[in-house]
Amino acid sequence: MDRKALAAAWHEIGLRPGMVVLVHTALSKVGWIEGGPEVFARSLADAVSPGGTVLFPTLSDTGWASPERPPSFRVSDRPAPWVGRVPAAAMNLPGAVRSLHPTHSVAALGTDAEAIVAGHERCATPCAWDSPYGELVRRRGFVLLVGCDHESNTSLHLAEEFAGVPYHLLPGVAKCPVEAPNGARIAVRTRLHRWGVPRRFQRLDADLDHLGIQRRGRVGGAEARWIHAERLFAFAVWLLLANPRALLA
Length: 249
Known about the structure:
The chain is α/β, with parallel strands linked by helices and 249 residues long. Helix content is 30%, strand content 20%.
């Protein structure tokens, strides 16, 4: 696909100027992209311009961290390999900014990029209500899954943290050394995710279709899911308050 074909695909899915969109991608499912992941990421920013912002999860947690072994983070660090090629390319595009959270940072590109990522390092938990993931909900944005399903949907951790499920966070607070873009060093105090708890986020898929919270399309060879973030959050929190284990395998 070239940039023109990508633009047509985003328009068909529903991207419009002024929107805020958090994107998860498996680029290998999409197929060949002329210009690679950089063009793919830029095409998304183009699709919501003017006035919009596109977000990419640039997660760096690899599962070994704990309050006793806090992770360190520099804003120039590459995301974890399993995040994929698109976020790694997006965070290095001109105008992109990245939040300063040591495990669940977000890269943003567009009009409100700096406002959306600001203060992530002050959040008590990685995907807290005052994090960029919560900001996506407050701005009535969207989650876009391209070539992947809800097992990759980081926004569901926002619902888990908001609902206070007992399995999600390690006890204690980690004090993480973080280096900002200007070289300043800060200590970020945050709870950390507990790895290894088996989820089944994909079990929401049929209900989200039925409730009209998500719709589907295609981008190249990949299926795409287009989800209203505010309604997704409300539905997931409702499920978890009724049954805190509702999203576990």
